[in-house]
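Risk register update: the risk of archive-format incompatibility is retired. Evidence:
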Amino acid sequence: GHEHIDYNNVLMPSIFGVICFFGIFGNCIVIYTIVKKTKLCSQQTVPDIFIFSLSIADLLFLLGMPFLIHQLVGNGSWCFGGTMCTVITALDSNSQIVSTYILTVMTLDRYLATVHPIRFKHVRTPFMAGAAVALVWVFSLVSITPVWMYTGLMHLKDGSVGCALLLPDPATDTYWFTLYQFFLAFALPLVVICGVFFKILQNMSATVAPLPQHSLRVRTRKVTSMAVAICLAFFICWAPYYILQLVHLGVQRPTFAFLFAYNIAISMGYANSCINPFIYIILSDTFKRKFIVAIRPSHRVFRVAPALADGSMRSLDLRGMKERRRDEM
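Archived output:
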């Protein structure tokens, strides 16, 4: 009917467009801030590496959205060719799994940071974090093999071509593929993340042992609460999609209401990639500081000490002044 046309041509593309715009903008801010910070003080922290990788995965996920919007407006027709169809679909599935598993690794890192702050110090290095992220990418690219193999162009009723996952035996394969995706990209990470956060909370409520100094404790707690917020946002945004995927297995002819709910669920999944940067900006004071440093024009850093009336340079190094004063005493 008429509402279908409005819905496909106006409502969904607008929702997707807004998510896409804010998401790309937010993730670019995060990536820029971390790159700039690393350049300035050339030290990356472990959370930096996870947040940076998550933003890259989110950004890749969102960059595929304009193609989807185009497909929605064009009633399912795809005009970018077979290769792009495979690449965009694979990027889409890949980013979904990469972000889930980066969150899982990030949670494990929070566990080591809060429960064993000293014992695993040598494990929680930027190098190990980078290696973990690289492994997640490899694992993900392998896990989406069905997408690489079976995504392709299909002929639509109106004579145009669409882009879809064309499994060899749709009836049974769709069933198994949906379950595979549900467990791999949602249920398994959810169980791990909840279990780990439960252990962290248990530890936080029971700690009387002399932990490292107070400021470090406060910082660890802040980073941990940010990790909790990111994981919560992830599961709230993706749960409707995976639940409807499972429901869809039992639905023979989806109604308009079901399709509407399904599209809203998809947009919530995309919205997750758009929300993350704003969670960092709201919850992390350090991130806010780094962000302000990153966008400030850099020429102010090189201020020359004003020459005094007698032409000598005023000492900016207070430590040097203290040493001298001690010599004079």
